[in-house]
Amino acid sequence: MVDLNPINLWRRLLALPNESRTKTVAMAFLVSGICALMVSGATVLLRPIQTANRAAEQQARLEALVAGIPGMSTLLEQSGGSLGTVVIDLARGAAAVDVTPETLPGALDDTASWTGLEPSTDLAGLGSRPNYAQIYLLRDDSGDVSLAILPISGSGYNGPIDAILALEDDMTTIAGLAITEQSETPGLGARIEEPAWLSQFRGTKVSDASGDIRFAVARGMSGNEYEVDGITGATRTSNAITRMVRFWLGPQGYGPLIAAIQRGEF
Amino acid sequence: MARPALWSVLTDPLVRQNPVTLQILGICSALAVTTSVATALTMSAALTAVVVMGAGLISLIRHHIPSAIRLIIQIVIIASLVIVIDQVLQAFLPEISRKLSVFVSLITTNCLVLGRSESFARLNPPVPAMVDALGNGLGYSLVLIVIGSIRELFGAGSLLGYQILPTVDQGGWFTPLNLMLLAPSAFFLLGGLVWAVRSVLPAQVEAPEHTPPDSAGERT
Question: Chain A within 8 Å of B35 (Cβ-Cβ)?
Answer without folding.
Answer: yes
